[in-house]
Design brief:
The chain is mainly alpha-helical. 71% of the residues lie in helices and 0% in strands. 31% of the residues are buried.
């Protein structure tokens, strides 16, 4: 006779309902912490009279408070994510605040003097006690000097980038890349001294707007080459192979397929190069001079420019010169913004159209 032994298995303990959602911190808490952080920064500025210290304390408080709140109200994984997000957000705010402050202060100070008269007259015959004069001669000088530099820098830089990406192999390409990297870190005053020693002292040419354009050309080239090179590398090789498979020559593939595809990025790189040199003052002090009259010929005689005008008015020492300097600085910013907007419109117009 077989005996069957049965064992009582304890019933599983009753558990609560399975949650399909996790705890989430209310959306208003990060905003409240951000407001408290701003208050802490303002209070620190009032007590210590130091904006940098106030911004540091505010950013540190925001990161720590958001992370602790997420750890208590959510979980460890969410807290780590909140920490990274708050760190990136704080870094962005700390980076953008100085830019917005400079732009806002320049607009506030520059609009007081900016007028149609100021934009259409030069400083010829204006004395230290006269509240007249304008920047027309400086605008002409800036546009001509930067325009000449761009006219030479864009073809040279673009052809160099095409060679490095499409044809360059071996020691020559590595040498060109090395020198482009070296030129990226060349100070503007060094470029001005080089042009002064070679163009003026050795070859005997006079100080003029074109001499300043040569210095700006040296400063623009590495930016144009590097940006165009990176944009050309982003063009898929499938496009090149498809064109070559149809029997299209290499040069025509580059001209008709590769360049139109990368045109938007190339134009953006050119605008970055222009923005980098349009405010340079040191090489222009050596090479251009500081004319107070209108000179539309960049190859003969001294010629002014907006950076030189700002520098000159800042050191003029009369009660009207600071307002002129701020208005000229605002005009320079507006010119850069207009050029960037025009470049984006051209890039969108010339970009390859998607679909049929």
């Amino acid at each position: 006779m077989t005996t069957v032994v049965t064992e009582k298995v304890p019933a599983p303990a009753e558990s609560g309902p399975l949650l399909l959602t996790r705890r989430t911190m209310p959306r208003w808490i990060p905003w409240a912490i951000g407001a408290a952080a701003v208050g802490l920064g303002v209070l620190t500025k009032a007590l210590k009279d130091n904006w940098a210290l106030g911004a540091f304390y505010a950013g540190l408080f925001f990161i720590v408070a958001v992370t602790v709140a997420s750890w208590r109200l959510e979980d460890g994984r969410r807290a780590k994510d909140r920490f990274a997000t708050s760190l990136v957000s704080t870094a962005f705010v700390l980076a953008i605040v100085p830019l917005v402050s400079i732009l806002g202060y320049t607009v506030m100070k520059g609009t007081e003097k900016l007028s149609p008269y100021f934009l259409s007259h030069s400083m010829r015959g204006v004395g230290p006690r006269d509240d007249t004069g304008g920047i027309y001669h400086a605008i002409i000088g800036t546009l001509e000097q930067v325009g000449l530099a761009t006219l030479f820098a864009v073809p040279i830089g673009l052809l160099t980038a095409i060679y490095l990406v499409e044809y360059g192999r071996g020691r020559l390409a590595k040498t060109i890349t090395f020198f482009v990297d070296v030129m990226t870190g060349v100070p503007s005053i060094v470029a001005g001294l080089f042009v002064y020693a070679f163009w003026i002292m050795m070859l005997g040419f006079e100080q003029a707007g074109f001499a300043g354009s040569l210095a700006l050309l040296i400063l623009m080239l590495p930016t144009v080459v590097r940006s165009a090179e990176e944009m050309l590398k982003l063009v898929p090789n499938d496009l090149r192979e498809a064109s070559l498979a149809l029997g299209v020559p290499k040069w025509r593939t580059v001209l008709k397929v590769v360049l139109p595809t990368a045109l938007g990025g190339i134009i953006t790189g050119v605008m970055l190069a222009i923005a980098r040199v349009i405010g340079e003052t040191a090489p222009l002090l050596l090479l251009v001079g500081a004319s107070q009259s209108i000179n539309s010929d960049p190859f003969n005689g001294w010629q002014s420019a907006l950076p030189l005008y700002v520098f000159d008015q800042n050191h003029a020492g009369n009660k009207f010169s600071p307002d002129r300097a701020w208005a000229a600085a605002l005009t320079l910013i507006v010119i850069v913004m207009v050029l960037n907007l025009a470049a984006r419109l051209i890039a969108r117009w010339k970009a390859p159209k998607a679909g049929r």
